[in-house]
Structure formats: C-alpha cells, structure tokens
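Action item from last week, closing it out:
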Amino acid sequence: MTSVDAEDWLRALAEERGDIDRSSTAERVADKLRAGVLDGDIKPGQQLNEKALGDVLRVSRNTLREAFRLLTHERLLVHEYSKGVFVRKPDWRDIVDLYAARRVIEIGALHRWPNAADEVKRAVQEAVDLGLASAGEKDWTGVGTANIRFHQAVTALAGSARLDEEMKRLLAELRLAFHVMGDPRGFHEDYLALNQQISAHLRRDELRAAEEAMSDYFDRAEKHLVTGLRGE
C-alpha cells in the first residue's frame, strides 16, 4: 500500500468513526442485555421498550437498535412487524442444535483439565457450591444460574476467549428455554447432582469418567428439554 493509498484509507476511516463508536457502544449494550438473559432477569416473550431502555442506558435509539440487531442474530431477540422487539422463545429444534454445539465445546474442554490454571479449576467446584447453597435456600432460579456458571467454568478449561464468548451466547439462548419449561425446581434439581459428579471426577483426574458423565448429562437434559418444548 502506497502512502497516498494509506492516507485515503485513513480519511475514509475517519469519516466512518461515528459508525464505529456507535457499533462499539451497541456491543456493550448487547453485552448488558445478554447478561440479563443469562442471569434470568430477561424472560422469553418479554417486549423490550426502546424508550425505557434508551433512557436507562443513556444511549441513542440507533445504538439500541444496533444492539437489538446483534442479539437478533444470536437468536435471543425477534422483531415482530408493527409490534416491536421481543425476547425469543426457543423451540425444540433450537435445543437439538444447541446441544450438538455444547457436546463439541464442553466435552473437548474437559480434556484441558490437566493444563488449566488452579483458579480456573476452582471455578468449576465453586459453581457447584453455589448451586448447592441456592438449593439449600430453595432458590431454584438461583440453582439455574449456578448451573450456567458451572458450564461456563467447564468451557473456560479450554483457555480460549473465543470459546468463552461463544458459550455465553449459547447459554443465554438455553436460559430462555429454561424459562419456557417453567417449574425451575423440577428442571434443575436433578442436574445439580450430575454437576457434583463431573466436578468430583475432574478433581480426581478421571477425565474419561468426567467425559462420560457429561455426555450422560447432555443426553438427559436434551431429552428433557425437547420433550417439554414439544409438549409431549
């Protein structure tokens, strides 16, 4: 690239700076909304009010709409013509696809256990402990949140920021399915014991057993969700 070409490129970039600033802000807004889904605060079917969100977050309507576009691409939101933007309700086909992705990512991440940093390993058991504490308080929605953190911690064993980001998106979509199922105790209670089992295998460096337990977990959870969402 010649110096003239470089100057032309820089001038063009300067002209687009406003779009870049708006885009980066939109990504931060999308991060906030995605976190709300992961924590269970934003629920499927909920309408997102542009004015209310814009006032609270102090962002322009264009920035907010760009954030909505990003989350629509992630299958977390849906735009209904002449009605507005709503939080999406996943169906059973989404579940099949989500679990296909999770099997590849999480079971693969388990193999990185021996090389993971101590604090990353501790996060797996800490998520289990959080789930047990929430169950002790009969906070079954909190158990669901702890379950999300457990699977994020498992993914973090891979040591890949890209996989961590992808898992956030997958688990946010899955959290919406949890809401559609209803009865958080009936859904989450049994999986807490499976998380304990997987963590125990990892602490004993029983990677094959941890992989088999995770595979069993996914088979059971996928069937549970698909059956519930299909109304069977």
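Closing note: The mean pLDDT is 88.
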